[in-house]
Input
Amino acid sequence: MTNIASTGRARAGRARGLSTKAAVHTVLLGYTIIAIFPVILVILNSFKNRRGIFSDPLGLPRGETFSMEGYATVLTQGDFATYFANSIIVTVSALFLILLLGAMAAHALAEYRFRLNTLLGIYLILGIMVPIRLGTVAILELMVDLNLVNTLLALILVYTAQGLPVAVFILTEFMRTLSRDIKDCARVDGLSEYRIFFEVVVPLIRPVLATVAVFSMIPIWNDLWFPLILASGDATKTVTLGVQQFIGQYTVNWSAVLASLSIAILPVLGLYALFSRQLIAGITSGAVKG
Amino acid sequence: MSEATTEQEKTAREAKPPKRRKRRVGGGWHIFVFIAPAVLIYTIFSIYPLVESLRLSLFDGLDDGSAVWNGLGNYVTLLFNPTWATQFWNALWNNLILFFIHMVVQNPIGLLLAALLSLAPRFGSTYRTLIFIPTLLSVVVVGFIWELILSPLWGVSETLLGAVGLAWLYQPWLGLESTALTTVSLISVWQYVGIPMMLIYAALLSIPDELIDAARVDGLNGWWIFWKVKLPLILPTLGIVAILTYIGNFTASFDLIYSIQGALGAPNYSTDVMGTLLFRTFFGQQLQIGDIHMGATIASMMFFIILIGVTIYLVLVQRRLQRYEM
Amino acid sequence: MKHMMKMTTATVALCFASGGVLAQDATLTIESWRAEDQAIWDDVLIPAFEASHPGIQVDFAPTAPTEYNAALNARLDGGTAGDLIVCRPFDGSLALYQRGHLADISDLDGLDNFPDFAKAAWQTDDASASFCVPMASVIHGFIYNADAFAELGIEEPGTVEEFFAVLDTIQQDGTYTPLAIGSADQWEAATMAYTNIGPTYWNGEEGRQALIDGSAKFTDPQYVRPFEVMERWADYMGRAFQAQGYTDSQNLFTLGRAAIYPTGSWEIGGFNDQAFFEMGAFPPPVEAEGDTCYISDHTDIGIGMNTATDNPEAARAFLEWIASAEFAQLYTNALPGFFSLSNAQFEVEDPLAQEMISWREECESTIRVAHQILSRGEPNTWNNMWTVSANVFNDAATPAEAAAALQQGLEAWYEPQQN
Output
């Protein structure tokens, strides 16, 4: 397998003149600024006092406007360490289940011909079409019956169910394009169907798995609704809910609000950085298609 | 297997050479083991609750909270009672505008960025990471950030426009009926452009080098290679992007609009979408307890509308797209 | 649905059966939309209650106002809502009572401490059953930057024309935005504008009752006039007010950049913390010198008991305490601007709150016009009022059109208005 990234670079280098390169960078840089400017603005202003935020929103925090009072309020008032831990446990567990179960199901749908295959395929993506929020009351009753209210497991189960359709949809599409020969070779070698899945198929779909992971992570991390309904207790509160309630409590204290927003942004970036490396590694190493 | 299923099967696989089309004929426990856990969790925690809710659309609620059978009465009310119909069509229309804006702004930008990134420029991974950041943010954060930036009070957008001599262009975009929906759509584009970008980027990278080299040998230049070779090859991915955009437009768009413009789709319902209409009907407002039956009716309509879109995609678009595959 | 109802009934029966045993050592959870009040509950109110009621712990667990009703309804249906429910007035809570979520507390002794008008906000239409203990009302009016007024040499306006003269003076000076209100969030337009100044034109209770019994219509001049006045406000509301939200307006005023803030008294607590200048308040101006003034003294917040609570005895003990003179005094002063509805004598310490509560003496009181009975159907009059009031500010509707929209919506389902 050749390293796509380096041949790509070589290819690009060969064909393009300096001006094309400049144009490419102008566009990318321009868009990058658009993408991160608002985020930087928030972080910048979170280090100012309220007057500073309003009188000079675009300026750097300076002498009379610099203030850590926002962070002080956030750190003394909210139990953000717990909230972070909760968010991370929920997000990572749900992601693991979505990827594992989703890939298994997608593999079955893409690989084997059996009764109800098409029907099951359609059934599994129906969930994309209705916002799961609608089922709130039934979900809540279910969790009450299972004694799972105010547990992180309740959230993990709901998010897994919510994330599966998109995962199955995307993974099935990709798995159908996988080469049959490799799998058939493995079968000739006597590998069991399970080992074929874990040892042959999974490595091949790593780029897509990483992509699905990133996409599935976003709605889970950012969800406000189910934490509110299923796990709003202090011990099970997630970061997004914590921040939202914090904003509710300190509506006018913008230093505190911006500080809490900044704090909420950081861990997602960390989590993303973690997956991102996988994502890139996956994309570049597994880029050979059927 | 029923005839219909075989037919669909065939359709879906049509484009493949015969050798690939043949899937393993199944039976055996492993299939069950592969598919059962997903089906189980999904059925219990997603399908069952949703069916429970959608079922409510066939009933009518009484004051004491009990329900009586109402057949399709709620659907008739939703589509023909002026109070409901006005809101319904307005919301649906706004959803379609939202979809249109995403299709002509978000996805082309995503494609452009992905295409540029696939040229493997210097700092490519840095650009990609940074551009993806907004996608990671919670709508609570995004809503707050953009309200601040566009706020007349804070003056950020005015100052920025002023810096390039365009201060007169400033308008309270989020507050004007004529511009609110477009503005919210563009904020959503800003947030989610990372998704098509990543999907298309992955697809572009997985195009085998041999094809590109072959095209180059044929004397095609970079632009033509993109247009004639790469684009057709990533059409299935563009199809996925389109259908995800369509679905997300009904489901995900709700959070952003709700957080920026409120449950009534201010100003004057100009940003009201199916999601906000559903939410305020189903869960109620300050002085109004939720009407779960009308709410379920709206949700069911939403489901049918999405189903129509997905069917069109599966039957027409995907079938046609797969012909382009090797 | 049916299965759910059955379950709830069963749970309720079970709870009442075992309730007595659990009365000691109970933990009560309060559902509320007042996230801002967290510190006051945690530091002042709950300790006071717990001191006199050993064995009962109370936990104040608010949900942000935007999600409160939705989250509460879902939790009530799912059976996980808190023991005590902070109630919106009238139709919102009445529906919860009718569905069996709020307990009938008519036999609570403490209810005798409240005047009838206060209890009416949380009773069935025939006043036969009460389901929430009144906590407080909020009074509408205008808070102003007293330093700015002194600087510009202007005085509190008494009549509408004086009001606009004051606005003109501030406008001409240019230092301050005359009126701190925007239309982005819509509800302020209905709450702090239309139902704030409206009672002056429709003579308070008289006009409100006339709509309920069908003898007046929203298209009658007394209901259109307030919209006409609001239309004139738009010129003084600061540039780009269409995108100015609630917190924007609060900031605009407390940072000293606006002179007058059309308000509800609930702002006082927050403003005391944020504003660095002297503040004053005046009631809605009257048409002509010597006219009776009317204020919206709105029964805004009450608290009731979840029928599904595991600790009905403890919950009732808490409600009795809410109805006590001790709570009236504590609450009114911990949250200046939320005025206890109790008959008990209590001292209001905050000067601004004192000023506003004193209007009860000079002016006739009424409540927000859309809240009782008129918001029971679809379209909901209160929701409608948000939209059309904002439309008037935005010049998207004329006063006549706005009133017509309200009337049309009401006629669609409200029988007394249908002839």
